[in-house]
Structures are given as structure tokens and as C-alpha cells.
Design brief:
CATH class: Mainly Beta
Number of strands: 41
Distance between the termini: 61 Å
CATH architecture: Beta Barrel
Strand content: over 45%
Length: 727
């Protein structure tokens, strides 16, 4: 057994024994304690296609309440998910463009052709409606943290329920608790020209509720060529058509424009991390000369429906229609995309009680997503669209899936879950200039799942699961390599195969509320050990110009989180992740890198997988004194260990630590009608110079250097003032 597994198991055992001692008095204590226990047991999640208590789920899952991210800029997911074990979110330039990884999945989405502003390998949802496209790629344009009420992160392999989600699921909820009409305004400003204005309003109605969230964000950026402007709106209309029928409508839109400064070499980073990539010996034309940027405009309407036939049977459905107008200036071309994205699902649920001690739940359903549209590539003149049309084609993708899952509960202590899903994901390419390369291709996969949960106490469980995973290549990853002219005879890389993974996981989690310890009022923890065996890992070559699959890789890790609330208003939140991620079989043909190297092979078996640090952690300490609960202060320390930027393990991103701090105020006036709030937050208080993100397998420039570094922001601040009126 590897040392870190041995040490982690010993630590888990010690923690479990200690917490068991704390948990024993809960069973026979006062009525007040019993009420606390009941409230803790009400924590539910919806990221598994049905409401279920978090402690019952035989998977690693974290629920992030709004209170953990509301005192931040609310710009990027890195600000919201820093306290989720196993999840590393790296801000690329300090705005909404981030790189999201869960257990190493999502790491490869970093390179010149990996499409800035997107992630892959992890599925994202807002109120049950997918942000992720049929090919598994996600853009963050519509994700509004200002209007989010909670975030659920499924850190385990989720393909058996969601498909094409080997890295997990991030589900964002926007539905607020509304008991009377309200209007909320917030204004923020900060370093490097940061400004944000947010408006939120809502009211109950005779049949449900209506709410709206609107925000506008401007950011001049720390680096040259990194300005961004984002406007978003979100409207929710919730209707209870009858006591057993609910119908909800969600309308959202965004306009997102941001510049891309490009990666720096180590020499450039050491000299001036605030510069953009403007060296013609590295890129010609440079990122500044071609004004590398994205301008995305999106709109979507989605509906959800649920009808409860009786206490045992429920039917739900979801549909959505989305329009996208996307413009990009990249790689010396100007690109126009016009796409529509549509889809839905249908799910039937059944709950049956076979006896006093045995009952079961069953769900079955299907998904469909379809995206299609035109791509027009023009020549570029001084960063603007030229008049010469170079590419005129249609690109489409379709994702069809069917799934079933059954859970059997025996007594109040044991439950067993099993499931199976079938996916068919197809790509369509139609070139109107060169019809000879028109091509379609489909990927199919059956994905199983098996899990078991056992209650040691009502609020303390252990679990184990075995799950399969599938992740097909994203659309741009299907481009064929051009070394031998493959891109002139076909449009889809036939050498690519879906990533197939098998996850083994054991874990324990608990929520303890007790009066047994005088200084402690609440303690919760989550520990998970996992091993993921992967076949056909998709690897970017030549800065993401094309992708191949490695033979086999293995990821093993330990994740832990702890939350403690002490008497007097002090609380502690901490997470730590340790993992070992290596290629097991990986033999590449150097001829696909350079034709002069044809016939030569290199083996990277045993090397560390790039982009994935062995260790990262966060610790947040918050103090909200009982004698003055309207005030609070908190500090967070985040650290990331050294990791590699290429398969050969010759390029290194150094370890770093950053410290953030916040002081704030929140007070109600006028009989709880008027609520005022304010905070000042300092990020990177020690002004550390660090590598926030990297490009994987970067090109070697003509001067012999490798551009792969995306610098993190230096010391910066944000100040906020908010007012809310409840009518």
C-alpha cells in the first residue's frame, strides 16, 4: 500500500474514533440538541436528478452555501469553490475565464486551441438546465455568482447518471427563499479598474414566485491585453399549477467580451508578469497585434416540469432552447460562430415500501442535447475581420442518453445503489468550400455504477462506490493532425477514442451538532479515498493544435474537509487534497510532432500527468463575535504544490501560497425591513508573485523558450456596499 493511503487510513480511523465519542451523547441528550440534529439532517442535494439527503449519497459531494462566496467579487468560480476538496479552479487572468479540475479531469483544457473561457470533462448545470454543450465543453458566460444561492459539487465519477461527465458535476442553484417582496442593490469597486453593479428582486405570487438578477461587471485587468466586460440577467418564474404540479421557467442572457493576453515564458514572467505576449519571436503576429479576444452573446429559455401522481410516483421533464452569437480573434483569423443549442430530458421516479424495514426508490429517463450552426473564418487585418472568407462550414453535435438507477434501503442504516447508462454522442461536419472532407462520427458507451452507504449514527455515514466513466473529445479536439496532411483528407481525427475510466472510492462524512463539548457547537467532516484507472486519456499536442490518446493512466488521491464552529463566534473551514497522477502506458510517435522525427518513439510511462499538482489546500478562519454579530472578519490561506506543464516533465509550475482577508458588516433596521451590508476584501495580501495557471504541452518558440505561464494577480482589493429592502 502506498504511504499516503496508509497514513490517510490511520488519520481517518483516529478522526472517526474521536468523532464517534462525540456523537454518542447526541442520541440521548436534550430536546434542543435533537432539534439541532434534525436541522442538520435536512441538508439535501439535487445534483443526482432527485432530492436526496447529502449523507445518504454514496459519492463524494460538497454543498457550498451562498454564505461561503457572497463576500467576494463574484466574478469567477475560483472565488466560490476554494473550499471544495478535490477541486482546483485556476483563474487565468483574474476574470471569469477559469480552468476547473476535479480529480485531474479538466486539466487538459489549457492551450492555444483549447478555447479560452471554456472547461471540459466536468458538466455544469444552472437550475437543472445544462451549461455544458453536447461534446462536453462548457462556457461560463451565463454563470452568475451574484444570483446564485448555493452550488453543489459532485466530485465523483458522474457518468452513470449524467453521461460524458467523468470529472463530476457542478450544479448551481439560483432559486431564492422568498417570503415577501424584496429589492436588493449592490455596488463594488476594486483594483485594476474592477467595477460591478448588481440588482436582485423577487416577490411571492398566488401560485409561486418571481425573481430577477441583473449585473454588469467591468475589469481593466492586471495584465496588458486583459480587459473584460460582462453583463448578465436571469429571470425565474416558479408556478405551482396544483398541489402536485410545478412548472418553472428560467430566462437568461449574457454579453461577455474579454481580451486574452497569452502565455509568458519563464524569462518574461521573471521580468514583468503584467505584460501580454508581444514577442514576435514567440508568436507572429503576437497576441497584442491580433488583439486576441472573445465576444460572446447568448440567450436561453428553459422550463422544468414536475407532476406527482401519488406518494410513490413522479414524472419530471426539462426543455431548453439557446441561441449563441460568438466572435473570436485568434491564431491570425477572425471567426464568426452562430449556433443554436436545444435539448431536454424526461425522468420517471418511483418509491416503494416492501416492508417495515425494506424500501426502494427507482428512476429511469433519457436526455437529448443538440447543437448546430455555421462557422465562418476570415482573414485578419490588424486584429479586425478581413474580407477574404477562408472557412465556411457547419459543425454539429448530438448527445443521446438513457439511464436507470435503483436504490434499496434496508432499515435506517444500509442502502445499496446500482445504475446503468447508455450514451451515443455524434459529431457532424459539413464543409461548403471543400465538401470532400465532410464527415460524421459517433461514440457509444455503456456506463455502470454501484454504491453502498452505511450509517454508523444517524448523522455519520461511511460509503463505497464503483463507477464507470466516459468522456468523448470536445469538438475542437477532433481536429486531425496536419503533420502528414490529414486535415486535407478528413475533418475528424480518427485516432481519437473516448476516455474510459473506472473509479474506486471509499469515504466517510458526518455532520455533528452537540452540546457535549463546551467550546464546540458544530463539527462536520468529509474524507474520501479514490483510485481512477483511465484508458485513452486525451492529450494536447503542439499547444492544442491536435489531440491524441495516451494508453493508460492512473490517479490516486485522498481528499479531506473539516468545518468547526466554536462557541463565541469563531469558525474554521479547511480542505486538503493529495493525489498521485501518472501515465502507466504512454508511447508517442514523434512524427506527429515533427515530420523530421518520423519513425522515432518516446515513452512517458511513469511520468507525472501535467497540469495536476500533487497537493493543494485551503484554510479559512472566520470570526463573528456573539457580542457584535453584525461584524465579521475572515482570513483564507491557499496553497498549491509544484506541478508539471508538459508530458516530458521538463517544464515546472512552482508551488505558491496566497492569503486573502475580509472584514464586513451586515445589519437589519426598521423591523427587519432594511438590510445594509458592506465588506472590504484584500486578495493576495502578501503580494506573492505566482503562476496561477499554465498551458499544457506548449510550443517551443524560435528563441528556444516555452510560453506556458499565466501569472496570478498581485495584491488587490475589492470594496462592496449593498442595500436590501423587504416590503
Amino acid at each position: 500500500m502506498k504511504p499516503f493511503f496508509r497514513y490517510t487510513l490511520v488519520l481517518c480511523s483516529a478522526v472517526s474514533l474521536a468523532l464517534e465519542a462525540l456523537a454518542l451523547p447526541i442520541q440521548d441528550t436534550t430536546n434542543t440538541t435533537r432539534k439541532k440534529v434534525a436541522r442538520a439532517d435536512e441538508i439535501t442535494i439535487t445534483a443526482l436528478r432527485q432530492p436526496e439527503k447529502a449523507l445518504e449519497v454514496p459519492l463524494a459531494i460538497t454543498v457550498v452555501p451562498k454564505s461561503l462566496f457572497e463576500n467576494s467579487r463574484g466574478f469567477g468560480l475560483d472565488e466560490a469553490l476554494s473550499l471544495v476538496p478535490g477541486v482546483l479552479v485556476q483563474s487565468r487572468t483574474g476574470n471569469q475565464d477559469v480552468r476547473v479540475m476535479i480529480r485531474g479531469f479538466g486539466a487538459r483544457g489549457a492551450g492555444e486551441r483549447s478555447n479560452a473561457g471554456t472547461s471540459r470533462g466536468i458538466r455544469f448545470y444552472i437550475d437543472g438546465i445544462p451549461e455544458t454543450e453536447p461534446d462536453g465543453r462548457t462556457a461560463f458566460d451565463l454563470i452568475d455568482l451574484s444570483g446564485a444561492t448555493s452550488i453543489e459539487v459532485l466530485r465523483s465519477n458522474a457518468s452513470a447518471l449524467w453521461g460524458n461527465a467523468a470529472g463530476g458535476v457542478v450544479s448551481i442553484n439560483t432559486i431564492p427563499e422568498i417570503d415577501r417582496p424584496y429589492l436588493s442593490l449592490q455596488a463594488q469597486f476594486g483594483s485594476f479598474g474592477f467595477q460591478k453593479q448588481s440588482l436582485r428582486a423577487g416577490t411571492p405570487t398566488d401560485i409561486g414566485k418571481i425573481y430577477i438578477s441583473v449585473n454588469n461587471t467591468q475589469f481593466e485587468g492586471y495584465r496588458a491585453q486583459s480587459q473584460s466586460a460582462l453583463s448578465q440577467f436571469y429571470v425565474g418564474l416558479l408556478s405551482n399549477l396544483s398541489p402536485k404540479t410545478r412548472f418553472n421557467t428560467f430566462i437568461t442572457g449574457a454579453s461577455n467580451a474579454f481580451q486574452i493576453p497569452g502565455p509568458l515564458t519563464q524569462e518574461q514572467f521573471d521580468a514583468n508578469p503584467a505584460q501580454a505576449q508581444n514577442d514576435a519571436a514567440i508568436y507572429s503576429p503576437t497576441y497584442v497585434q491580433r488583439n486576441e479576444r472573445r465576444f460572446n452573446r447568448l440567450g436561453r429559455i428553459g422550463t422544468t416540469f414536475e407532476h406527482q401522481f401519488d406518494a410513490q410516483n413522479t414524472l419530471s421533464a426539462m426543455t431548453f432552447l439557446q441561441s449563441k452569437v460568438l466572435q473570436r480573434s485568434e491564431r491570425n483569423t477572425f471567426r464568426d460562430f452562430n449556433r443554436y443549442h436545444a435539448g431536454g430530458n424526461l425522468i420517471f421516479r418511483n418509491a416503494t415500501r416492501f416492508s417495515d424495514i425494506v424500501h426502494a426508490s427507482f428512476l429511469a429517463g433519457g436526455d437529448i442535447q443538440y447543437q448546430d450552426g455555421a462557422l465562418l473564418f476570415y482573414n485578419q487585418v490588424n486584429g479586425q475581420r478581413g474580407t477574404r472568407l477562408q472557412t465556411n462550414k457547419r459543425e454539429g453535435a448530438q448527445n443521446l442518453g438513457a439511464f436507470a438507477q435503483a436504490e434499496v434501503m434496508i432499515g435506517s442504516s444500509l442502502s445499496v445503489t446500482g445504475g446503468l447508462r447508455y450514451d451515443n454522442i455524434a459529431y457532424f461536419n459539413e464543409d461548403f468550400i471543400n465538401p470532400k472532407i465532410n464527415e460524421n462520427r459517433a461514440f457509444e458507451r455503456l456506463t455502470p455504477k454501484l454504491g453502498i452507504t452505511y450509517h454508523i449514527t444517524p448523522l455519520w455515514t461511511i460509503y463505497a462506490n464503483l463507477g464507470g466513466g466516459v468522456e468523448v473529445p470536445a469538438g475542437n479536439e477532433t481536429d486531425p493532425p496536419s503533420v502528414f496532411g490529414e486535415d486535407t483528407v478528413r475533418s475528424i481525427n480518427v485516432l481519437l477514442k473516448p476516455i474510459e475510466s473506472t473509479t474506486y472510492e471509499i469515504g466517510t462524512k458526518s455532520i455533528l451538532l452537540t452540546d457535549a463539548v463546551s467550546f464546540l457547537s458544530r463539527l462536520s467532516f468529509d474524507v474520501a479515498l479514490y483510485q481512477v484507472n483511465v484508458v485513452n486519456d486525451i492529450i494536447p499536442y503542439r499547444g492544442g493544435r491536435f489531440y491524441f490518446t495516451a494508453g493508460r493512466s492512473q490517479r490516486r488521491g485522498a481528499e479531506a474537509s473539516l468545518q468547526a464552529e466554536f462557541q463565541g463566534g469563531l469558525s474554521l473551514m479547511a480542505t486538503a487534497t493529495y493525489s498521485d497522477n501518472r501515465f502507466v502506458e504512454y508511447r508517442i510517435d514523434s512524427g506527429f510532432v515533427s515530420r523530421a522525427l518520423e519513425g522515432r518513439f518516446v515513452s512517458y510511462a511513469g511520468n507525472k500527468m501535467p497540469g495536476i499538482p500533487d497537493f493543494f489546500s485551503s484554510v479559512r478562519l472566520r470570526y463573528q463575535p456573539n457580542f457584535a454579530p453584525q461584524f465579521f472578519t475572515e482570513f483564507e490561506w491557499r496553497t498549491v504544490a509544484t506541478y508539471f506543464a508538459n508530458d516530458a516533465n521538463t517544464l515546472t509550475a512552482p508551488a505558491f501560497s496566497v492569503v486573502d482577508g475580509t472584514v464586513g458588516f451586515r445589519q437589519a433596521f426598521l423591523d427587519e425591513r432594511l438590510h445594509l451590508s458592506a465588506f472590504v476584501r484584500g486578495n493576495n495580501l502578501l503580494n506573492s508573485k505566482y503562476v496561477a495557471s499554465i498551458w499544457i504541452n506548449p510550443d517551443r518558440a524560435t528563441n528556444g523558450q516555452y510560453p506556458f505561464i499565466e501569472p496570478g494577480l498581485p495584491l488587490n482589493y475589492v470594496a462592496s456596499f449593498g442595500v436590501e429592502w423587504r416590503f
